[in-house]
Amino acid sequence: EPEVTQTPSHQVTQMGQEVILRCVPISNHLYFYWYRQILGQKVEFLVSFYNNEISEKSEIFDDQFSVERPDGSNFTLKIRSTKLEDSAMYFCASGGGSQLLGSPLHFGNGTRLTVT
Amino acid sequence: SQQGEEDPQALSIQEGENATMNCSYKTSINNLQWYRQNSGRGLVHLILIRSNEREKHSGRLRVTLDTSKKSSSLLITASRAADTASYFCATGLYSSASKIIFGSGTRLSIRP
């Protein structure tokens, strides 16, 4: 069964550094998402992406964050200048059908980001 | 404030018993979904119910939706040790169809 893959599984970075988290969504999916989860707590929406542009973003997704789908297969989340509070598990997800009607999201296994 | 709130936050039951988790939300929705997360892993979709549906079944899962009360419940019948996980509801907002918001989750433990 197709799956969403995320790399790396664990990223350690120093405060102030830039990180890029990578995701390969399921190939025929149209909707792409980034979520984050701090210490197994609530899953927080960051951004949704459709038709090569951001559809929705949360208050968390400020100017230090950006997303790209550079080559039709990868979907990346860039954090420009990491802060200690960015330490979390970051999940990528993709959805195949109309979100207006409702379509299941398929999640990757996440990237654990540790900012020191 | 959080769109979805599950209760209880944690639930511990004996294997074979039924587990019921509830989800309440604040704004109008197109659909509501339930997901499961094993520790340290990604979320796995369980079931989706649309706003014009009231009940849905899938195997040992039963989901209800009451849009007048803005609430949903997930029932797992005849629980097994392998059902131990966190369970999250997620709402597809009527106002922003691609914004899918997760609740705070219920940690379910099944005692053998």
What does this structure look like?
The complex is a heterodimer of chains A (116) and B (112). With 116 residues, chain A is mainly β. Chain A is built from no helices and eleven strands. Chain A has strands spanning 5-7, 10-13, 19-24, 31-37, 43-50, 53-57, 65-68, 75-79, 88-95, 105-107, 111-115. In chain A, strands 2, 4, 5, 6, 9, 10 and 11 form a seven-stranded mixed sheet that branches. In chain A, strands 1-3-8-7 form a four-stranded antiparallel sheet, with no helix packed on it. Chain A starts with a strand and ends with a strand. Chain B is mainly β and 112 residues long. Chain B has strands at residues 4-7, 10-14, 19-25, 29-37, 43-50, 55-58, 61-66, 71-76, 85-93, 100-102, 106-111. In chain B, β9 (85-93) and β10 (100-102) form a beta hairpin.
Name the average pLDDT of chain A: 92
Number of strands of chain A: 11
What portion of residues of chain A is helical?
under 10%
Mean pLDDT of chain B, rounded to whole units?
A: 92
* Poorly predicted segments of chain B: none
Distance between the termini of chain B: 37 Å
Number of helices, where a helix is a run of at least 4 consecutive DSSP H or I residues of chain B = 0
Labels describing this entry:
heterodimer; A: 116 residues; mainly beta; seven-stranded mixed sheet; four-stranded antiparallel sheet; 11 strands; B: mainly beta; five-stranded antiparallel sheet; 60% strand
Explain the layout of strands and helices.
The complex is a heterodimer of chains A (116) and B (112).
Chain A: E1 5-7, E2 10-13, E3 19-24, E4 31-37, E5 43-50, E6 53-57, E7 65-68, E8 75-79, E9 88-95, E10 105-107, E11 111-115
Parallel strand pairs in A: 2-11
Antiparallel strand pairs in A: 1-3, 3-8, 4-5, 4-9, 5-6, 7-8, 9-10, 9-11
Chain B: E1 4-7, E2 10-14, E3 19-25, E4 29-37, E5 43-50, E6 55-58, E7 61-66, E8 71-76, E9 85-93, E10 100-102, E11 106-111
Parallel strand pairs in B: 2-11
Antiparallel strand pairs in B: 1-3, 3-8, 4-5, 4-9, 6-7, 7-8, 9-10, 9-11
